[in-house]
Amino acid sequence: MKTLIVYCSSHGTTEKAVQMVSEWMEGEVLAVDLKRDKITFDVGDYDFVVIGGSIHAGSIQGKIKHFIGKHFEELLTKKLGLFLCCWHDGETALEQFDKAFPEELRRISIANGIFGGEFLVSKMNFIERQIVKKVSGVTVDTSNLDTTAIMSFVMKINTTLSLV
């Protein structure tokens, strides 16, 4: 089985999550950061597609939205996993997840994950630091990345892949 992981990472948190997912997944995995990588790939070549990103100013990255829009019909025919890195948990995180991914994709997705997040203040520009400080009060690097949620997400996918 071949898996494509498409994601965007602004400060490195989503990339950390993708590294864990990639390591723990069975089969061949290609991970592509739409923001940084200049890799050409064909979604049709993959049996499973994982899409993930993070929340900035209440929304998932535009490159993720663009990828979903461009490949929407094909994604509906794929085994799919969706994940989100976000600072919030509970109802707020679920609302952000629902806003980030179209209902049709959420409905057919085999695995959905909310992985927690980080404020990597040391990697933020001045404006980002000021916004984070004002909104959350965070002034130093802080993490609530949930490795248990990541492991659970991967286990759902691996179980599905082993049944094929």
TrEMBL record:
InterPro entries: Flavodoxin_dom, Flavoprotein-like_sf, Protoporphyrinogen_IX_DH. It holds the Pfam family Flavodoxin_5. Residues 4-143 form the Flavodoxin domain. PANTHER family: PROTOPORPHYRINOGEN IX DEHYDROGENASE [MENAQUINONE], PROTOPORPHYRINOGEN IX DEHYDROGENASE [QUINONE]. This is Flavodoxin domain-containing protein. It comes from Neobacillus driksii.
